[in-house]
Structures are given as C-alpha cells and as structure tokens.
Amino acid sequence: MGAEVILASDGVALHLLKAEFPHLRALELPSYRIRYDTSNMVLNIGRQLPRIIYAIRAERWATERLVREHKIQGIISDNRYGCFTRHTYNIMLTHQLYLRVPNSVLEWAANNVLQKVLVKFNEIWVPDVAGVPNLSGELSHGEKKVHHTVQYIGPLSRIRSYDCETEYNVAVVLSGPEPQRSYLEQRLLEQAMLLPQKFIFIQGKTHAKEHYYAAENVEVVSYLTSHELNEVLLAGEVLICRSGYSSIMDLAAAGKKAILVPTPGQTEQEYLADLFARQNTFLVQKQEEIDLEAGLEQVTGTTGFSPGQFATDAFGARLEQWIAAL
Question: What is the pLDDT of residues 224-239, one digit of tens each?
Fold first, then answer.
C-alpha cells in the first residue's frame, strides 16, 4: 500500500518481529514485564500495578521521541495503552473493550479506567466481526458505548488454510508469560513422552532457534516463523494451545480441533475457554488437571471452526482507507 512500516515492541515479541521481518526497522519500547505467578488475577496485577503504570508512562515518553525522530504520521497500537501522541492518527487494536475481573467493584473501576485510556485514541479497531456468531463474545460486544469510533475489522491471523498432508497427531503451541508457560510445557512433555501419538512442541522462545527430539515421538522447536508455523499447524490433527485471543483467531483460520488450556489467573483466557467449551467448539482442560490421553479421546467429539467460517482478510480495505487519510 506504499507505507513505510516501523516496528516497535519489546522482549519475546520484538525478537519474533525481527525474525519475521528482518528488512524492517525495529525499535524497542519499555517492557510491562507482567508475570502470572499465582491463579489470582487481582493479586497478580495488584502486585505489579506500580510497574505497569510506570511502563505506560515510559511508553508515552518513548513514543513521543520516536514520532519526532522518525517523522511518524500514524500509529497502530496492539494493546499498548501508552502508544499515542497528539501529532499522529492513533489506532488502538484490541478485542478487550469490556474487562472481566473476578470482583464486581474492581471490574467497574477497571472498565472506567480502560474507557478513559481508550478515548485517547482516534479509533478503536476490533479484530472480530460485529454480529453473531463471533470470536470474542462479551469482551468486545457490550451494550455500553466505550468510544465514538469502534470499527470491527474482522479476525486477524497469519494462518492461511490449504490442503496439507497430516504429519503430526498433535501440535502444541506454547505462549504467554512465565512461569506459567514453562509449567505447561513441562506437564505436557511428561505426558506426551508416554503416549504413542506423534507430537511437535513449538516453545515460543524467540531468543535462539533450537530444534531437537525430547523423545522418539516428541519433536521440539524453539519458535517458527509465520510460514513455518502455518505448515506445522495444518499438518497437525489436533492443536493444544492457550485460549488467548490470538490463538482463537489462528484456530478460526486453520479450521482445526483443539484442546485449550487457559493461563491460570488470566480471566480473559478463562472466559474465552468457557465460551467455546459451552458451545462444544473446543475441549478445555485446566492446567493443573491436564490429562492428555483423555483429552485426545474427548476432543474428537468437538466441532472446531469450519475453514472459512470467519474471513481473516477483511481488514485490508479499512487499512487502505486509513493509510490514504494519513
């Protein structure tokens, strides 16, 4: 579309973006460094709130500097609440217009704060469809108006569906904050090595590319680029992953059956897992109660998404309009 694209992120995401787009300029932003040490979301966030607030302020300062240095005209912020300036046209890309908190008073307070932050942006782009059925449920489809310009741009996914020979019985995609990512990997590996099925584990570690076999039937790779991940997911019969929204959009694009394991303490993931479990779209297991053998038997009774049920290329027209307006 003729736009010069500059990437900005931190940590694991920044490493992945650099590997994915080595020809693009990639800048570093302050890190939120959120951890989920317990299954209590209020406790997790409460302990880290001062650091999160400071990170958002530091993000604002960094964004102002980067806009001046690189003469940036527009910003698309993927859930980074400090990435906007008065001198740019600012888009917030998020599916969370209505936060879910396990306490009604705290939920009211959190959503009021969120609304005050969202109005700083010129538009909100929701990567979902406006009607029913949709992928995000009540997280982005509520009665209260949170912003004057909310655009539903359709699901976003780097996965494209095509005919592919089955190579793996199970593809495990690990993601999310530590230490929960490592806890899940260990529990799944221990059980996978005792089963007859052929597994591939994508660890989600982007600092170095590693590839090895943990057992004769268990292949492990540290991370994959989009093209490589696309091939592996389509070559797997069943996927195992977190119930984060990016994973849900990838599953919609791939049209695969899956076992979802929500991150303990992440109410958004727990909500999405419950939503799709009630619809019998996916099988859900809690991290502390994982039973791979039983799960692989039970997942055959779920429906999954139909390939093409949710178009993942609908955002192009809106993106083109935005770039033209800049």
Answer: 888 999 999 999 999 9
pLDDT one-digit tens code per residue, 53-106: 777 788 899 999 999 999 999 999 999 999 999 999 999 999 999 988 777 787
Task: Kindly give, in sequence order, each residue whose CB lies less than 8 Å from that of residue 170, ignoring residues fewer than 6 positions away.
Answer: 192, 197, 198, 199, 200, 236, 237, 238, 239, 240, 296
Angle (CA) 187-285-213 rounded to 5° is: 35
Place of tokens 């770039």: 323
- Tell me which amino acid residue 306 is: S
CA 245 to CA 57: how far, in whole Å? 26
Would you say how long the chain is, in residues? 326
How many helices and strands in the chain, by DSSP H and E? 9, 13
Q: Name the H helices within 200-299.
A: 226-234, 245-254, 267-278, 292-298
Closest CA relative to residue 57, chosen from 41, 81, 75, 26? 81
Bond prior to 179 in cis (omega within 30° of 0): yes
What pLDDT, in 10s, does the model give residues 119-142? 999 999 999 999 889 999 999 998
CA distance 315 to 292: 37
List, in order of start, the domains of the chain with CATH numbers: 6-155+312-325 (no CATH), 168-301 (3.40.50.2000)
